[in-house]
Design goal:
Layout (H helix, E strand, L loop, with lengths): L13 H18 L11 H11 L4 H14 L3 H6 L2 H8 L5 H18 L7 H4 L7 H11 L9 H10 L9 H14 L5 H14 L18 H5 L15 E12 L2 E6 L10 E2 L2 E3 L8 H11 L1 E15 L3 E15 L7 E5 L10 H10 L1
Helix pairs in contact: 1-11, 2-3, 2-8, 5-6, 8-11, 9-11
Bound molecules: iron/sulfur cluster.
């Protein structure tokens, strides 16, 4: 079988689409996993859960989702919250710009749409952090509209089902896949159809070793027929992750530890963390963090003593973190709002990212 041309979908027979919809929806209705956001049809729940689920596993998301919804049960309550509080509830989920966008989005929904999440794609796409996938998920799951919701998982399923040899990391492929999604989505049950595709991608049509013998769509799957399911989707190799050596400071005053608020721009912006700075490769370990504390906050320290090493991988970067215990010599009289002395017990009241929690766990 040759490479399938994606635009051939426009010529797909209605009975084939009907068969696909029927098989997928029946499978989803019998086999889907229970998730708290699936218990009611609430566009706010769909929005929050879909954003949390980006790059994150369902099991990880569930407790975060429940805490978030408990604290901010409606868009209006979320809009009124402090960003600090939103970030605190997000701490550990990573990709913090998602939380900031949700918060900004809630404010916009209150200002422009009186707290009601819009019911059309054009308006949804104006909301910070809502892209075509999240818009499609909200429209189809919460509003029962036949919109496509195409993310990386769905593109993998489509690549295999329809034998698409196109690089799914390209924006043009995503656009074509969205057209494909619109062509095949069920008009009568778009929610079960789209969730079925997502669930199939998570449970059956997995990135490695897809479980084709248990797949409800194997009878129409072109990749399976051609025996090439393991080589799809086509995806450009990611660039190598850059490694950065970070020096962290452990500074204590009684039972309290110094936390600093990270700058408003860049990686982990506005989150609370142990003082940290990129180290130099001159073999003078601990010197960079001593200088950073002195220059940024007027804190004089000495004798950096290495305590623990940990690493953390972000999307495009790996931090090799080395924590130094520092002796506090003196502090400036200036009251810096971006530093706080916090006991280990109080730390859960702060939005601290996972990279630093790994190190703090060692201190504890
Ligand atoms: S038959 Fe296999 S490759 Fe095709 S959709 Fe199902 S799990 Fe994926």
């Amino acid at each position: 079988m040759g490479a399938y041309k994606i635009n051939d979908w426009q010529n797909l027979k209605t009975e084939d689409i009907n068969e696909l919809q029927h098989a997928l929806i029946s499978w989803f209705e019998k086999n889907h996993r229970q998730m708290p956001w699936r218990e009611t049809i609430n566009p706010y729940y769909t929005w929050i859960s879909e954003v949390m689920l980006q790059q994150t596993r369902v099991d990880t998301v569930i407790p975060y989702f429940l805490r978030f919804i408990d604290k901010f049960p409606t868009v209006k309550q979320l809009a009124k919250a402090d960003e600090e509080e939103v970030l605190r509830l997000w701490a550990g989920l990573g990709y913090y710009s998602r939380a900031k966008n949700i918060h900004r989005g809630a404010k916009l929904i209150c200002e422009v749409y009186d707290g009601k999440i819009p019911e059309n794609q054009k308006e949804l796409l104006k909301i910070p952090g809502i892209g075509s996938y999240t818009a499609g998920a909200i429209l189809s799951i919460a509003y029962e509209k036949p919109a496509a919701a195409v993310d990386g998982n769905v593109m993998r399923v489509f690549s295999r089902l329809f034998l698409v040899y196109k690089d799914i990391s390209e924006g043009s492929t995503k656009k074509e896949m969205e057209k494909l999604g619109e062509a095949v989505v069920s008009a009568t049950n778009p929610s079960a159809f789209n969730q079925g595709l997502m669930e199939l991608g998570a449970l059956i049509c997995t990135p490695n070793s897809p479980k084709c013998s248990s797949c409800p769509l194997s009878f129409i799957c072109r990749a399976r027929r051609a025996g090439v399911q393991e080589s799809l989707p086509v995806k450009k190799k990611k660039e190598a992750v850059k490694s950065v050596n970070m020096e962290l400071g452990l500074l204590q005053k009684g039972d309290k530890v110094l936390l600093t608020k990270r700058p408003p721009e860049g990686l982990l912006a506005n989150l609370w963390a142990l003082p940290a700075v990129e180290g130099t490769a001159d073999g003078n370990a601990g010197r960079s963090i001593v200088l950073e504390l002195q220059e940024s906050y007027g804190i004089e320290t000495s004798d950096p003593e290495p305590v623990v090493e940990k690493s953390h991988v972000f999307t495009h970067m790996k931090w090799n973190m080395q924590l130094f215990r520092l002796k506090l010599l003196s502090m400036s009289d200036i009251d810096y709002p971006e530093i706080q002395w916090v006991s280990l017990k109080e730390m859960d009241q702060y939005a601290i990212p996972t990279a630093f929690l790994k190190v703090i766990k060692e201190i504890k």
